Amino acid sequence: MKIEFAPLHIPMRRRLQTTATLQWVFSFLALAQCCLAGFILLALSDWWMLALLYAGWLWLDWDTPTSGGRRSQWVRSWRVWDHFRDYFPITLVKTVDLDPKKNYIFGFHPHGVLVAGGFGNFCTEATDFSRLFPGLRSHLLMLPFWFRVPVFRDYIMCGGLVSSCKSSLSYLVSRPEGGNVAVIAVGGASEALDARPGALKLQVLNRKGFIKLALKHGAQLVPVFSFGENELFDQMENPAGSPLRRLQNRLQSIMGVAMPLFHARGVFQYSFGLMPYRKPIHTVVGSPIQVVQTPSPTSEDIETLHQVYMQSLTLLFEQHKESYGVREDQHLTFI
């Protein structure tokens, strides 16, 4: 394999963009493990009292990830996220105004490998979420497992990440004052196993839990499509039924985390590595679906709203696809 190295003379702004994205990839793939190892080493050292104090804090703060989290506008506004945005670049596209007195569930599609668009748009202020949607507070839902990791949990909550468990979503969308946006990557971890350039398959057909909670609490549903999300990484071939896919499914059922074998480019060369490709991401926020609160929704209520949601998502995609590099003959496939 011929290796294509990066030029020696690269503008400083591009170096900063690469560095910012490298720290994001590290945070996503290895920071939790480093935080856990650091906490264990601290507990076994002469400074074990600090570990004990933090453990006490962790016990007192255990429910915070399911109770709205702990956002930090300062962390969300770090300059590093501007460089991260410009690496791809990432753009947040608003189609309509949203009433800040209501609560919303944003259905984010597709999941992609590392949910770069979801993080850049809804966990930072790099794409001006607060300016585009004044009065709204975005919260990206993440697997509960990660909020059990010492220190790491506190860091990710600063960006607005919260647990993806049912009680967490219910807490956000049941606030009477409104203004909360719960962002859900509807396809979940399993959809990441199909994330590769050109992929337009979305795991939606059997994802109805968020529909039920929207009905129960009267939260407005908003379809969101992130064009370019699947273009950031290549992935080893893993068709359904293959030995690799069976192993990945087995590991996911045990660990709750998908293990896509992805690759793209490196820091100093463009031929291999875990850095994403520099491909533009355009995250389009659609029009809200008005939901009438139904404290005890029936299966028919859920199915009806689910069909409306899929139709709205399809319409959003079809209206904007040609503006963002998708051919006219390409369409979404729901599985």
Please describe what this structure looks like.
The chain has helices at 12-43, 48-60, 73-76, 80-87, 116-122, 129-132, 152-158, 166-173, 188-191, 209-217, 243-255, 299-320; strands spanning 90-94, 104-109, 137-142, 162-163, 180-185, 201-202, 220-227, 234-235, 262-263, 281-285, 333-334. It has 335 residues and is α/β, with parallel strands linked by helices. The strands form three sheets. A seven-stranded mixed beta sheet has the order 1-10-7-2-5-3-4, sandwiched between helices. Helix 7 (152-158) links the parallel strand 3 and strand 4 (162-163). Helix 1 (12-43) packs across helix 2, helix 1 (12-43) packs across helix 4 and helix 8 (166-173) packs parallel to helix 10 (209-217). The model has no long low-confidence stretch (mean pLDDT 95).
| Helix share bin | 25-40%
Distance between the termini: 36 Å
Percent of residues in beta strands: 5-15%
Approximate shape: globular
Q: Count of helical segments? A: 12
Average predicted local confidence, pLDDT: 95
The number of distinct β-strands equals 11
Summarize the biggest pleated sheet: 7 strands, mixed
State Rg: 20 Å
Q: How do the SSEs run, as a string of H and E?
A: HHHHEEHHEHEHEHEHEEHEEHE
Quickly give the structural class.
alpha/beta
Strand order of the largest sheet: 1-10-7-2-5-3-4
Low-confidence stretches: none
List its salient traits.
335 residues, alpha/beta, two-stranded parallel ribbon, 12 helices, 11 strands, globular
Brief synopsis:
The chain is of the alpha/beta class and 335 residues long. It has twelve helices and eleven strands. The chain is 39% helix and 14% strand.
